[in-house]
Amino acid sequence: MKKDNFDVIIIGAGPAGSSAAFFLGKNGFKVLLLDKEQFPRDKPCSGGISPRSLKILEEIIDLRAFENNEFQKIIGVKLFSPDGAVLEGTIPKTKEYLDYGYVIPRIVLDKMLIASAISNNTKFIREKVIDLVIHDNFVKGVKTNKNIFESKIVILANGANSEISKRFGFLEFNPELLLHSVIQHFEGVQETNSYIEIYYEKDLLPAYFWFFPEGKDKANIGLGMWGNKKGGRNLNAILKDLIMKHESIYRRLKHALPKKTKYWPIRFKSTSSKTYNNGVLVSGDAAGFTNPLTGEGIYYALESGKLAAETATEALRKGNYSRQILRRYEEAWEKTFNNDLEYSHKLNKIISNPEIVDSLVHIGSVDPELNSIIQGALVNVIPKEKLFESCIQLLQPSHAHS
């Protein structure tokens, strides 16, 4: 067992960990990035990259790589209501964000992010972290299956199944805050286009069934189901039934080659769980930073990684790693995206009612302003609060019979 010293150790080399590593390394700190997997590795994920994600990604990698790799550019969303109505629109142009996104397989995205971190003062080692090293109530490093590494700060970015996050009270494993997800990739898909498709099905609400094009003749299809709704139902069987039910999807997949179905949990932050303590910060899925309305996690991973790096930078420069300093991270992410997450939880309650989703899609398909709000909220360029206000207006008596 050897001891190595670093300024910051990051557990988990997904988007949150690599983002934190890149920004810390860029600030001149010595960073160790640990992951139990060898990269490139695949990860179950629909791969949706929102315009808001692109804004952070352009600081970390050259976005021309996305164009050159012919990844699927996304210009809008097609929404299908439980009663079969369709709303189609394009991502609105805003001052801050681009009016398009991408679908990029995680095997490619994560490899690009790690490479960028490694070229900025970061050492990557493949080892499994089994515990945190704690002295005098401060996290001082990590213990892996092979070594002990010491650092001034540790950032947990090791995903929704992080046992360490659970053990130290950073992530609550609560069935009410759990989305069960299943995904299947296909090759040889016909008629892929520049829209992601979201199907709101009565049995899945407020979650949904999706079709995400991946460029050329590829696509991924999947669904989410909230923990308190799943019961003993088999997600794979539901996925197959939904593919058969939707003629337009079935037709496009008729001659396609299906890959293995993959399952993964999406956990959401509970109000009681903290994202910092003495010598430690928690980011990405390990903190439950995923949007409960859309399931988007990549933006929150990249953003929380960057914010964790900013707080850690301040702490390192002051030589103070106490929770009093590190709590600034929580203040930063709350200011940046907590409003969005809170309104997404409120929207989930509203769209659990299929009649409201039907109304939203029917009215949005003929009302350009509502259409734009729906598009913008779903791809994270318009605050969810605006969509919430639109839903509340729809619930007013004057709209009841429209």
Defining traits:
FAD/NAD(P)-binding domain, 402 residues, single chain, eight-stranded mixed beta sheet, alpha+beta
Structural notes for this entry:
The protein has helices spanning 15-26, 51-60, 64-68, 106-118, 163-167, 227-230, 235-245, 247-253, 298-318, 323-350, 354-364, 368-378, 384-394, and strands at 3-11, 31-35, 48-49, 72-74, 76-80, 86-90, 101-103, 122-126, 129-135, 138-144, 148-156, 178-187, 195-199, 209-215, 218-226, 257-258, 262-267, 276-277, 280-282. It has 13 helices and 19 strands. The strands form three sheets. Strands 1, 2, 8, 9, 10, 11, 18 and 19 form an eight-stranded mixed β-sheet that branches. Strands 5, 6, 12, 13, 14, 15, 16 and 17 form an eight-stranded mixed β-sheet that branches. The chain has 402 residues and is of the alpha+beta class. 47% of the residues are buried. The protein starts with a strand and ends in an 8-residue tail after the last helix. Helix 11 crosses helix 12 (368-378). It has three domains: 3-47 and 105-171 and 269-347, FAD/NAD(P)-binding domain, CATH 3.50.50; 175-267, 2-Layer Sandwich (D-Amino Acid Oxidase, Chain A, domain 2), CATH 3.30.9.10; 353-399, no CATH class. The longest helix is centred in the C-terminal third of the chain and has 28 residues, at 323-350.
